[in-house]
Amino acid sequence: MHALPSFERAAQQEPSAFPWKMAAAALLLVSVAVIGGRSYLQGGEPAVAAATEASPVWDAPAKPVATATTGGLVIDSQPSGARVMLDGADVGVTPLKLEAVQAGKHTIGIVTSTATVRRTVRVEAGKLMTVDVPVYSGWVSVFSPIPLEVASEGKSIGNTDTGKILLPPGRHVLTLSNREFGYTDTRTVEIHPGEERPLNVEPKGRVNLNAHPWAEVWVDGNKAGDTPIANLQVLLGTRVFTFKHPQYGERRITATITTTDSALSVDFTKSTDRP
């Protein structure tokens, strides 16, 4: 074999050196390109990109829609010219139109020289309500098994014998009385214009009933029970009590019942008809 020249042997023994100079030059070129690109992007083009990538626009919250909280009232009376009170405050005379009345429940008072009539109304927001209140008189008729005097606010206005009693419309507290029977009571009535209000009164007293040996008791033809009977409620006035026994027959007692407690008794073993 022929020996290789010395320079060839050296090339085979040492690996080829890395081209460092070429790599450094390439790196330098890349750096220049990056810097140039940045400079270019900072010019006119980036403004376009920024415009196309603007932040999203959010809708502003809607303002609350104002809602009506008041309504209106048109108030009239029959006859007109009455004073109007709204929740206790004087607001004028009829016919009257009120605006901007707070929605909700209100009390209207119609006041004349002889009467005060009250109405409760409910006002709706955004609506106009009409109220027409008659203030002419009505009547009350009192029915009772005994005569009664009728008074209002301490003044006598009639009795059960006079028939219908004229009253202004509205609420009235009536005092009913009869001195002979010791009876006094009060009743509340609501009078409506042009209408008659019947008032039935049944004043009662208490009576104790007894018989010997015993008896069925009837009051004005209605059976009350068997003796002894205590604290029986009976209408005031003249009442007929009938005592019945299957062996001794029957006996009758006519008595006047008042508000003072009374007692009636029959002894069938005695010959007299009186207890």
Low-confidence stretches: 1-17, 39-53
Mean pLDDT: 81
Q: Name the helix and strand elements from N-terminus to C-terminus, one letter apiece.
A: HHHEEEEEEEEEEEEEEEEEEEEE
CATH class descriptor of the domain at 70-134: Mainly Beta
Query: SS-based structural class?
Result: mainly beta
Please give the alpha-carbon distance between the first and last residues. 180 Å
User: Over all CA atoms, what is the radius of gyration?
Assistant: 55 Å
- What's the total helix number? 3
Summarize it.
This protein is mainly beta. The protein has three helices and 21 strands.
Verbal overview:
Mean pLDDT is about 80; it is low at about 1-15 and about 40-55. The chain has helices at about 5-15, 20-40, 45-50, and strands at about 70-80, 85, 90-95, 95-100, 105-110, 115-125, 130-135, 140-145, 150, 155-160, 165, 170-180, 185-190, 195-200, 205-210, 215-220, 220-225, 230-235, 235-245, 250-255, 260-265. It starts with 5 loop residues before the first helix and ends in an 8-residue tail after the last strand. It contains 3 helices and 21 strands. The radius of gyration is 55 Å and the shape is elongated. It is about 15% helix and about 50% strand. Among the domains are: about 70-135, Immunoglobulins (Immunoglobulin-like), CATH 2.60.40.10; about 140-200, Immunoglobulin-like, CATH 2.60.40; about 205-265, no CATH class. By secondary structure, the chain is mainly beta.
